C-alpha cells in the first residue's frame, strides 16, 4: 500500500511541474517586433538612386529608406498572426499614406505584401506599424521591412537626430545641412530614459505657412495674405511699381523670417492699412542670443558692423554691440554695472530696407491709423530715416506698434521710431538702437499736426532703448530743442514700468558753460510742452547729456503747457549731466513733478547720478551751474517728494544732501517728508552765477569765502543762499522718523541765517549738518520708500539742487494732495456653471487710471470696446496705479494720489477713475466709471520761508458711478478731510470686480480595440509652477489639482483650469486587465484654446517636481493635438490597451501543450481515486 501511495504522489508532482510549465508558457506578451531586430540600414536618394548613408549632412526633403531585418519566432505573433513596431521618437509617419513595403520568406521563397495584400498586410496608426502574416510557415520567420520617408519627417536638435529602432538599441544618427530652413530644426526631443507614454498621432498642420524665397514681386503685386516662411534669401524691388512703392498690407499677414534675409530694394517699404495686422517673427531667434561682458563708463553708443551681401553687394547688419547699465539694489543705494551685449546676426532673420526721406515713405514699416505691426523677433534695419513710423492722418483709429522682441536698428540717420499723435507704441521686449537725430534718436513722439498737444502714447513694460543720440549744439536757441537721446516727447504720454530699460543714450552736442544755461538736454528722455512721463517701474540708467538732465529732462523754461513727471517706482541711476544741471532728473521752469512710491514693495531709487557742471570752465574753485547730482529744479519749476532717505551723496561745494540757490524755496515737512543725513560736502567749489542781468545768483561765492575764512564745515547736508535784501528763511529740526539734530547755522531748534559780505557781494545763507540718532535713522528707514543716495555734484546739491519750489513731504495745511482709495475683487468663473470662487491677486496685476476732466460734461464718458472715451469735454491722463497683492479671501487695495499741481487754483474739479484693460482675453474687465468731483477753496495765507503762501482746503466731495451709460449719483463713500483721502464704497466692498473664465477638461476612457467605454480609470492632474516658461530653470515644481476616476460612462471632468497655465496629467490606475497610458501635458491658452501633448520630462519620486529632458519644453511637439471644446470644457478621448494572454498554436509545440493539459486532467482523476482509497482503508 505504501508503495502505491508513493507512486501516485510522484505522478502528481510530475504533473504539477508540467502544469507550472504550462502556466508560465501563457504569460502576457507585448508582441513587440523591436526586440527581434537584427539590423537597420539607412539609404538616401542621391542623383535619382538610393545609396548607403555615409554621415553626409542631408538637405531638406531628402528621401530616406530604412531597411529593417528581423527574425520572428512564431510565438511572437498574436492570435491574429500580427506584430507591431513602434516608430522611434523623432520619426513621424502619416497614417493616410503607405510608406512601407515588406517581405517575409519561408521555404526559400520571398513573398512581397502590401497594405491589403493576399499574403500579408500592414497598417500604420498611432506612431506604430502593425504587420500581419496570413499564413506563417517557418519558425523563425525572416522578415524584411522597408520604410520610405523624407528628411522633413524627422525632428532635429542642432541639426542632428538619433533614432533608436530596437530594444537592444539599434541606432542611427542623421545629420542635417545647416542651410536647412525648417522652423522645427530646434524643436526638442525625447531622451531614452524618460517618462514612458503611449504614442499619440501628430496632428497634420493645416495652417502651415507658405514657403517663399527669391524675388516675390509677383506675389506682392497679387496681394499678401496669411502666413509665409522664408526658406532662403527673399527680395522685393521696384518691379512692384515705381521706385518707392509700398508693399501694401491689405490683409492680416504673418512673415516668419526663419533665419533668412528679406531685402527691400529701390525704396520699397511695408504699408500697413487700417484694420490690418502685420506680424514679423524669426523662428530661428534662439540661434543668435546676445553675449554679455563687463564694460566701463556710461553714455555708450551702440556699434553696428555691416557686411556686404554676397549677391548684391549691399551692406547688411552682421554684428551689433549695445550697452545696458544694470543696477543691483543694496539697501538704500544701488551698485551699477555697465554690460556690453554683442549679437552676431549671421543666423538671424534680417529685414533690410533703403527708404527715401520723403515723408510717409521714409520707414521700413509705415502704420496707418487703425493698423497694427506686431514685431516679435528678428532684425529690421533701414538706411533711411526710420525703421517704424505711425501715420498722422491716413486711416482711422489708433495705429499700433507692439514690440515684444527682436532688434529695430537705425543707421544713425534719423529716429528709429517716429510716433505721430493718437497712436500707440507698446514695448514689452526687443531692442531699439543706433538712432541719431536732432531730437529723439530712439523715439520721436509727435503732437497733433506737429504741434504741442495731443501727442501719441508710449507704453514701455519691457524692452531696451539704448545707444541712441540727440545731436547738434543749439547754443541758447529755443527754436529747436536738440534733446532726448533715447526719447523726445513733443507731446503725449510715456509710461515706464516693469523691466523696461532706457539706458546709455546720449545728448551729445552743446554745453552749459560760460554764457549758456542748460536750455537743452535729456540723455535718456526729454519731455516738452504738455507731455507726461509716468514711471512706476523700470530703469533709466547710464544715459548722458552734454548739457542738462542726464536721465530725464522734464519741461523747458518756456513752452506750451506744463510737462509733468509722476514717479511712483523704478530706478534712475548712473546718469550724467556733463556741463549742466540735474544728473538724474531736471525739472524745468515749466515742469511739475511728484516723486512718491506706491509702497515699500515698489521703491524708488535715484542713485549714483552725477553733474560735472563747472569742471570744464573757470578756475579750480568756480564755474558752472549750481549743481544737482540726483535732481535739479529750475526757477518756477515744482517738485514734491514723499517718504525719502537722502543720504551718502557728495558735493564739491555745499549741501551734499539738499541745496537751494537764491530763487529756490524748500519746504521740509515731517509728514511723509525726508531724512537728510550722512552726506559729504567738501566746500571747494562754487558756481559762476547762473542768472542774467542784475540777478547773477552768485551768493554761493559769499558763503564759500565765509566758510574758507572761518574754517567751518557745517554745511554737509543742507545749504541755502540768497540776497541780503530778502527776508529770512527757516528750517526746522524735524525729519522723517524723528529729529535731524542739525548743527551749523542752527539754534533753539531752528535755523538762522549767516549774513556776510565778500568781494562787494552781500548775502545770507544757511548751512546745516545733521546728526540724527541711530534710533531715528531706523525709524526713517522703516517708513521710507524713496532713496536718493550716492549722487554727486561738482558744485552744490549732490542729492538735490533747487532753484524752484521743492517740497519734501506733505503739508495738508497749505496745499493738500488728494488721495483716492478703492478695493478690487477677482473671481474665477466655473466652466461648468455660473458659480465663481475668489482668486488671489499679485501686486499690480490689474491697472487703473485717473483722468482729469475739463470742459463740457453733457455727454457721459463711456467705453468704446476697450477704449475709455471722454464723452463731451476733454480728459487728461493723470496717473496709473496697480492693485496691492491680496490672498483669495481678501480684496486688493487700490491707492493713488492726485498731485496738487493739477488743481492749483480755487475752483471745481472733476476726475475719473477707471480700470484699464489688458490683453488677457480670459478676463472680463470691469468697465465701471467713477466720477469724482470736489471743490478747492482758498482758506487763508501762511508765511513759508519768507513767502506768503495761500492755504487751500478740499471740500464738497461727490462721487457718481457710470455703468453702461447709466449714471448713479452720490454713491456710498467715505472722506477723511484731515488727510484728504476718499474711499469709494468701503474697505469691505469692491468698487471693481473682474472675472476670469476657467475651463474644464473632460476625459473619456475607451478600449483601444473595440471602443468600449471603461470605468474605474484614475487620473491625477497637476499644475506647473509659473516659472516653467524660464527654460534656464531645469526642474519645475508641480502641485496636484485633483484626482478623479472615470464613471460608468468612462468619463470624468476636471474643472477650474486657467488660461496661460501648463498642466501635467497621468493615469495613476488603469482599469483591470488594461495597461496605463500617458503621461501628458496640457497647455491651456489665454484665448480659450488648448493643446494636448505627450510628456517629455522626468518625474521625481513623489511627483512633486518635473525635470526637463533634452527638449527643454516638457512636451513632445510632434504629438501635438488641438483639443475640441464644448462650451468651456475641452474634450479628449484616451484609450487603453488590454493585457492579452496568448494560447498555444496548433501543430508542433501546440500538440505538446495539449498533452500537458491532458496530464493535468489525469492527475486530477488520480487524486480523486487516491482520496477515496485512503478513506476506505481508514474505515
TrEMBL record:
Instruction: Please state the span of the N-terminal signal peptide per the UniProt entry.
Output: 1-28
Q: Where is this region: Disordered?
A: 181-214, 606-625
Q: Where are the transmembrane segments?
A: 1154-1174
Bias (Low complexity) ranges: 181-191
Q: Which UniProt keywords apply?
A: Membrane, Signal, Transmembrane, Transmembrane helix
SpaA-like prealbumin fold domain mapped to chain residues: 1001-1090
Q: Name the Gene3D superfamilies on file.
A: 2.60.40.3050, Immunoglobulins
SMART domains associated with the record: PbH1
Full protein name: SpaA-like prealbumin fold domain-containing protein
Amino acid at each position: 500500500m505504501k508503495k502505491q501511495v508513493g507512486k501516485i504522489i510522484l505522478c502528481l508532482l510530475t504533473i504539477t511541474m508540467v502544469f507550472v510549465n504550462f502556466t508560465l508558457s501563457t504569460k502576457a506578451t507585448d508582441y513587440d517586433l523591436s526586440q527581434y531586430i537584427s539590423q537597420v540600414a539607412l539609404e538616401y536618394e542621391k542623383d535619382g538612386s538610393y545609396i548607403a548613408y555615409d554621415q553626409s549632412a542631408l538637405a531638406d526633403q531628402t528621401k530616406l529608406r530604412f531597411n529593417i531585418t528581423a527574425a520572428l519566432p512564431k510565438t511572437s505573433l498574436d492570435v491574429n498572426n500580427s506584430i507591431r513596431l513602434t516608430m522611434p521618437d523623432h520619426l513621424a509617419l502619416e497614417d493616410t499614406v503607405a510608406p512601407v513595403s515588406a517581405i517575409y520568406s519561408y521555404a526559400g521563397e520571398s513573398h512581397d505584401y502590401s497594405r491589403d495584400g493576399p499574403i500579408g498586410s500592414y497598417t500604420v496608426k498611432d506612431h506604430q506599424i502593425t504587420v500581419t502574416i496570413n499564413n506563417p510557415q517557418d519558425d523563425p520567420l525572416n522578415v524584411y521591412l522597408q520604410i520610405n520617408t523624407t528628411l522633413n519627417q524627422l525632428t532635429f536638435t542642432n541639426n542632428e537626430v538619433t533614432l533608436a529602432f530596437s530594444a537592444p538599441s539599434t541606432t542611427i544618427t542623421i545629420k542635417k545641412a545647416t542651410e536647412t530652413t525648417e522652423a522645427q530644426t530646434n524643436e526638442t526631443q525625447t531622451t531614452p530614459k524618460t517618462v514612458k507614454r503611449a504614442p499619440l498621432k501628430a496632428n497634420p498642420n493645416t495652417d502651415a505657412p507658405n514657403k517663399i524665397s527669391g524675388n516675390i514681386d509677383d506675389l506682392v503685386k497679387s496681394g499678401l495674405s496669411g502666413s509665409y516662411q522664408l526658406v532662403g534669401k527673399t527680395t522685393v524691388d521696384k518691379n512692384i511699381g515705381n521706385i518707392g512703392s509700398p508693399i501694401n498690407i491689405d490683409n492680416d499677414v504673418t512673415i516668419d523670417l526663419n533665419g533668412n534675409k528679406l531685402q527691400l530694394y529701390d525704396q520699397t517699404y511695408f504699408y500697413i492699412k487700417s484694420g490690418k495686422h502685420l506680424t514679423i517673427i524669426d523662428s530661428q531667434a534662439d540661434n543668435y542670443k546676445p553675449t554679455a561682458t563687463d564694460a566701463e563708463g556710461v553714455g555708450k553708443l551702440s556699434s553696428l558692423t555691416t557686411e556686404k551681401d554676397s549677391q548684391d553687394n549691399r551692406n547688411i547688419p552682421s554684428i551689433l554691440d549695445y550697452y545696458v547699465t544694470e543696477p543691483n539694489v543694496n539697501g538704500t543705494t544701488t551698485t551699477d554695472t555697465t554690460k556690453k551685449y554683442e549679437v552676431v546676426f549671421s543666423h538671424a532673420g534680417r529685414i533690410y530696407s533703403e527708404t527715401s526721406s520723403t515723408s510717409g515713405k521714409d520707414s521700413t514699416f509705415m502704420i496707418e491709423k487703425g493698423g497694427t505691426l506686431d514685431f516679435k523677433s528678428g532684425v529690421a534695419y533701414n538706411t533711411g530715416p526710420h525703421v517704424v513710423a505711425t501715420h498722422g492722418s491716413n486711416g482711422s483709429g489708433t495705429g499700433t506698434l507692439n514690440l515684444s522682441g527682436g532688434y529695430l536698428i537705425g543707421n544713425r540717420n534719423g529716429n528709429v521710431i517716429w510716433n505721430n499723435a493718437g497712436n500707440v507704441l507698446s514695448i514689452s521686449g526687443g531692442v531699439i538702437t543706433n538712432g541719431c537725430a536732432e531730437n529723439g534718436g530712439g523715439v520721436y513722439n509727435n503732437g497733433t499736426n506737429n504741434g504741442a498737444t495731443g501727442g501719441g502714447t508710449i507704453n514701455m513694460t519691457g524692452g531696451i532703448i539704448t545707444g541712441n543720440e540727440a545731436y547738434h549744439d543749439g547754443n541758447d536757441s529755443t527754436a529747436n530743442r536738440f534733446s532726448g537721446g533715447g526719447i523726445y516727447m513733443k507731446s503725449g504720454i510715456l509710461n515706464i514700468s516693469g523691466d523696461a530699460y532706457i539706458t546709455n543714450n546720449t545728448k551729445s552736442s552743446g554745453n552749459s558753460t560760460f554764457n549758456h544755461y542748460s536750455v537743452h538736454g535729456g540723455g535718456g528722455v526729454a519731455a516738452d510742452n504738455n507731455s507726461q512721463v509716468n514711471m512706476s517701474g523700470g530703469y533709466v540708467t547710464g544715459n548722458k547729456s552734454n548739457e542738462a538732465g542726464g536721465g530725464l529732462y522734464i519741461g523747458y523754461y518756456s513752452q506750451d503747457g506744463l510737462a509733468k513727471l509722476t514717479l511712483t517706482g523704478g530706478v534712475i541711476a548712473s546718469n550724467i549731466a556733463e556741463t549742466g544741471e540735474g544728473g538724474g532728473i531736471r525739472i524745468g521752469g515749466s515742469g511739475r513733478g511728484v516723486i512718491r512710491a506706491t509702497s515699500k514693495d515698489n521703491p524708488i531709487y535715484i542713485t549714483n547720478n552725477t553733474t560735472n557742471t563747472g569742471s570744464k570752465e573757470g578756475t579750480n574753485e568756480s564755474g558752472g551751474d549750481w549743481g544737482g547730482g540726483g535732481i535739479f529744479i529750475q526757477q518756477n519749476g515744482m517738485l514734491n517728494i514723499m517718504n525719502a532717505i537722502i543720504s551718502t551723496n557728495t558735493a564739491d561745494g555745499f549741501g551734499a544732501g539738499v541745496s537751494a540757490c537764491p530763487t529756490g524755496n524748500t519746504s521740509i515737512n515731517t509728514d511723509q517728508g525726508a531724512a537728510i543725513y550722512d552726506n559729504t560736502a567738501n566746500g571747494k567749489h562754487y558756481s559762476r552765477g547762473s542768472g542774467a542781468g542784475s540777478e547773477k545768483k552768485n551768493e554761493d561765492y559769499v558763503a564759500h569765502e565765509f566758510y574758507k575764512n572761518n574754517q567751518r564745515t557745517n554745511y554737509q547736508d543742507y545749504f541755502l543762499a540768497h540776497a541780503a535784501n530778502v527776508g529770512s528763511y527757516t528750517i526746522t529740526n524735524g525729519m522723517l522718523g524723528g529729529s535731524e539734530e542739525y548743527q551749523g547755522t542752527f539754534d533753539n531748534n531752528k535755523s538762522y541765517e549767516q549774513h556776510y559780505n565778500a568781494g562787494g557781494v552781500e548775502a545770507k545763507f544757511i548751512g546745516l549738518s545733521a546728526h540724527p540718532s541711530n534710533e531715528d535713522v531706523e525709524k526713517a528707514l522703516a517708513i521710507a520708500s524713496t532713496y536718493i543716495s550716492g549722487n554727486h555734484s561738482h558744485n552744490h546739491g549732490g542729492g538735490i539742487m533747487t532753484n524752484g519750489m521743492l517740497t519734501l513731504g506733505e503739508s495738508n495745511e497749505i496745499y493738500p494732495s488728494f488721495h483716492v482709495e478703492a478695493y478690487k475683487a477677482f473671481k474665477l468663473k466655473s466652466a461648468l456653471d455660473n458659480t465663481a470662487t475668489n482668486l488671489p491677486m499679485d501686486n499690480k496685476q490689474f491697472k487703473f487710471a485717473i483722468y482729469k476732466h475739463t470742459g463740457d460734461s453733457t455727454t457721459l464718458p463711456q467705453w468704446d470696446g476697450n477704449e475709455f472715451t471722454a464723452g463731451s469735454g476733454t480728459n487728461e491722463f493723470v496717473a496709473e496705479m496697480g492693485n496691492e497683492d491680496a490672498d483669495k479671501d481678501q480684496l486688493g487695495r487700490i491707492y493713488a494720489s492726485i498731485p496738487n499741481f493739477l488743481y492749483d487754483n480755487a475752483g471745481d474739479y472733476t476726475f475719473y477713475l477707471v480700470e484699464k484693460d489688458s490683453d488677457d482675453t480670459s478676463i472680463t474687465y470691469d468697465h465701471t466709471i467713477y466720477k469724482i468731483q470736489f471743490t478747492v477753496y482758498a482758506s487763508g495765507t501762511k508765511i513759508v520761508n519768507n513767502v506768503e503762501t495761500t492755504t487751500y482746503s478740499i471740500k464738497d466731495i461727490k462721487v457718481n458711478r457710470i455703468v453702461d451709460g447709466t449714471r448713479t449719483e452720490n454713491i456710498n463713500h467715505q472722506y477723511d478731510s484731515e488727510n484728504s483721502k476718499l474711499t469709494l464704497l468701503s474697505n469691505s466692498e469692491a468698487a471693481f470686480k473682474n472675472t476670469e473664465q476657467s475651463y474644464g477638461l473632460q476625459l473619456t476612457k475607451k478600449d483601444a480595440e473595440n471602443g468600449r467605454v471603461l470605468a474605474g480609470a484614475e487620473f491625477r492632474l497637476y499644475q506647473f509652477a509659473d516659472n516653467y516658461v524660464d527654460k534656464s530653470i531645469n526642474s519645475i515644481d508641480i502641485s496636484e489639482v485633483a484626482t478623479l476616476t472615470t464613471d460608468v460612462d468612462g468619463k470624468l471632468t476636471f474643472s477650474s483650469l486657467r488660461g496661460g497655465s501648463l498642466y501635467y496629467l497621468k493615469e495613476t490606475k488603469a482599469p483591470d486587465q488594461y495597461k496605463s497610458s500617458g503621461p501628458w501635458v496640457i497647455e491651456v491658452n489665454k484665448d480659450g484654446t488648448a493643446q494636448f501633448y505627450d510628456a517629455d520630462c522626468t518625474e521625481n519620486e513623489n511627483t512633486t517636481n518635473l525635470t526637463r529632458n533634452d527638449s527643454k519644453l516638457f512636451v513632445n511637439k510632434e504629438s501635438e493635438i488641438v483639443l475640441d471644446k464644448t462650451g468651456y470644457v475641452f474634450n479628449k478621448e484616451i484609450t487603453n490597451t488590454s493585457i492579452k494572454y496568448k494560447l498555444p498554436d496548433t501543430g508542433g509545440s501546440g500538440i505538446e501543450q495539449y498533452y500537458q493539459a491532458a496530464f493535468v486532467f489525469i492527475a486530477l482523476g488520480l487524486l480523486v481515486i487516491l482520496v477515496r482509497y485512503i478513506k476506505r482503508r481508514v474505515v
